[in-house]
Each structure stands twice: as C-alpha cells, then as structure tokens.
Amino acid sequence: MITLQHTRTPVVVREPAGWAVAQVLGLGVVAATAGLGPLGWAAGLAYGFATWAFLGYGMQRHRASSLGPADRVTLTRGLLVGAVTALVADRAGQDVPVALVVTLAAVALSLDWVDGQVARRTGTSTPLGARFDMEVDAFLILVLSAYVAVHMGPWVLAIGLMRYVFVAASWRFRWMNAPLPASYARKVVAAVQGIVLVVAASGLLPFAAVLTGLALASLVWSFGRDVLWLWTTAAAPVGGSRHV
C-alpha cells in the first residue's frame, strides 16, 4: 500500500522523473556486475518509462505534488522489479544469474510488507497508492512466472497472466467491474504466488513443480470464487475493493 499527498492546486510532477533516472542508474549497476545486453536494457528502460508515465499521470490526476514515505518504499520495490525484468528478458530464461534474480525478487517481496506497514502507521493510504502497489506486485509475478516457465513449462505463465486476463475480461463484461468485498484469503493467495515463484526460481527444492502447481490451483480458486461472486451479485451494488 502506498500513499500520495494531495494539494488543492495544479502541480508539476517532477519526482517520478527522478525515479526514472534512478532506474537507469540501477540498470547500469546490473550491467556492470552481471552483464546486460541490448534486450535487457530495452526491457528495463521500457519498464522504467511505463512506471514513470503511470505514476506521473496518477499524481497529476490526484493533484499530488510529492510522494509519501510508503510511496518511496514501493518505488524502491519498483526499481528492483525493473532489474529483475531486465535480467530475465536479457537472457531469455537461459544463463540467468539465478542468485541475483532470486535475491532482488525476494527483497522486493519483503518490502511489500514494509510499505504496507508504513502506510498504515502514518495513516496516509490512498486508492492511487494501493493501485500502484498492486501493479508492481502483479508485474513482478508476471516476470517470475515467465522465468520459471522456461524450466517447468508454459503452464506456469498462467500465474502471471491470470490477473491481466481478469482485467481484460472486465473491459468486455461490465458486471466484472463491480467492487469486490475485502478478502483476507485473496491477499494470502496473492502473497503465496510470489513466495512460491521465488522458491521455484531458486531451484533449491526438488518438488518445486508440485508447489507451483498448488499455488496455481489456489489462484484459480481465488479468481473463480470472485468471478462467481460478481456474476451472482451483478444486479446488486456491493461495496468493497478490486481484486489484488
């Protein structure tokens, strides 16, 4: 969960651009230590630009002149996700520095708990902050699933793609745009995906494919339950939150 400070007057958003520069510098460090080719640079820069554009647009829309402390934790996570993206894309799943990828991804996942704590303790959470936090999580899961899929099979990609399929379907079926009630089980299932994928990427466990399959099954259950709830309650307005 990240937060954004609001003002009542139009503002020029500069801070996201500064973080975009930080992403470039981070990619430079990765290139100097682990090596990074043209494809990796292209993927990392595209990710950094998309992050800058998304956050800049959101801050302008919400008239936010600066980022809060939790926002900066989430953006730090975003920088790590950008590095993971560049490494995985550069090597196409082959000869990837596994220890580096796993370490960066694990730290990014750990910081997800930190930014949530910061947001709650400062009492400054916002819908935009929550959305940005969710997008960082979702993209990291997508990248990790693509990496693990190279070794386990394309079925693993379903973990990373499921949320995006859900969003695409909501564009076609308006009843899927209704807000969902808060669910602790949904949050647990979402968190499990990242943990399992990091473990699978590390190659340390002999039965990682079984764990990954169970994680996918839990995700199918979670999305299936939400879709069924949306379908059966389509005619009645219900308060809650979108799928995370």
Number of strands: 2
Q: Uncertain segments of ≥5 residues (pLDDT<50)?
A: 1-12, 237-244
How would you describe the shape? globular
What is the helix content? over 70%
Q: Strand sequence of the main sheet, in spatial order?
A: 1-2
SS element count, helices: 8
Q: Look at the structure and give the mean pLDDT.
A: 85
Structural class by sheet pairing and helices: mainly alpha
Report Rg.
18 Å
Terminal Cα span: 11 Å
* Overall number of structural domains: 1
Largest sheet: 2 strands, antiparallel
Order of helices and strands: EHHEHHHHHH
Strand content: under 5%
Question: What would you say this structure looks like, in words?
Answer:
This protein has helices at 15-33, 38-61, 69-91, 98-122, 127-152, 157-172, 184-202, 208-232; strands at residues 4-5, 66-67. It is built from 8 helices and 2 strands. Helix 1 packs antiparallel against helix 2 (38-61) and helix 2 packs antiparallel against helix 3 (69-91).
